[in-house]
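Subject: Protein entry, chain in single-letter code together with its fold tokens

Category: Structural biology, sequence-to-fold work with a learned token vocabulary.

Notation: Tokens come from a learned vocabulary of local backbone shapes, not from coordinates.

Start of record: The labelled sequence and token lines come straight after this line.
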Amino acid sequence: MSFQTTYGSDGRLRVAILGCTGSIGTQALDVCRQHADRLQVTALSVNSSTSELVAAAREFSVPAVAVADVAHGDDAVLQELPEGTKLGVGAQAVCELARRDDVDCVLVAIVGAAGLEASHAALTSNKRLALANKESLVVGGDLLMPLAQPGQLIPVDSEHSAIYQCYLGENPREAHCIWLTCSGGPFFGRARDELNRVTRADALAHPTWAMGAKITIDSATLMNKGLERIEAMHLFNCDLDFINVVVQRQSKIHSMVEFADGSVMAHLGASDMRIPIQFAFSYPERWDTPAPRIDFRELGQLTFDAADMDTFRCLALAERAGKTGGTMPCVLNAANEVAVDAFLHDGCSFTDIDRIVESCMDAHDMQAVDSFEQLRDIDAWAREKAAQVLAATRS
């Protein structure tokens, strides 16, 4: 039996946006503004951006909010929350938002592995999960996917939303392969030695998408695409080799599914994350677009290229992790988060990112995934190991 979404007494979908001040969260709030007759924001969380949290809570009259970073739980600005708004502090308070009775749909837009427990809370509380946190499935897909009822988990990543929509009405057993599209990032066509000299500003200049800093760096290294392959493997119950990466520089084809008879279903549209966010809220309906439309007569061209896994070694490392399975993707993700954060703070070079990740993977003895506690322990081990490798890189 397919999952049945609940709605408020006025027919609106009651939404919790976890990570409401990030790129996905702010765009989700914009979708909620545009469709206030269909969507009600009933819970919001931030990591530490309490001023923005208060502003959003006041605008949408939100009944409950949470601040993940306990160091900001007493920020003075929180006194300006609307009267009656319940405030929680800490990671568990964020998860509790997903369990509230006045929440029908949980958008998990938290960055990194921190989103895993929030995703688990949404699924086990029988809420629709609009998943914008790929790390949840990269790290804990073996635990999360068995919990998801058909139609309960709607992916928000533009590529996975595209694949999800290409499969609608189709028999997945008749699929031949998935074509996962990739912009190629700002360094497409560069040689490996050229990447040694790129700066943080260079890497943050994504050619087609406006995203947060961490995912933008992941897009520059192509780690993002490697993580997305692992995510797609869990979402669509297929082997990693079933998922092909193709560079589509214009970012107008968001992904494709090729079927046994040679037919290819492609999802095309504007490079605007509000479209897949809205689809996760509106499914199975389609509402008026929140973004400008494309005039294909003016687009000019659509180009396709192969991804260079020798130059962009993060893509190859993610393939290795995905094929190894078990706890190796957890190590891949944790080490990458440490390395990317270091790069963003001028603590290592761009090409040090994949070296740090590879060192951690080489040092890890893969285990079968059996619990969230195990994943937390391995995540912590990988972060400590990455910090050690980073320190050795600096010396």
The first helix runs from residue 23 to 34.
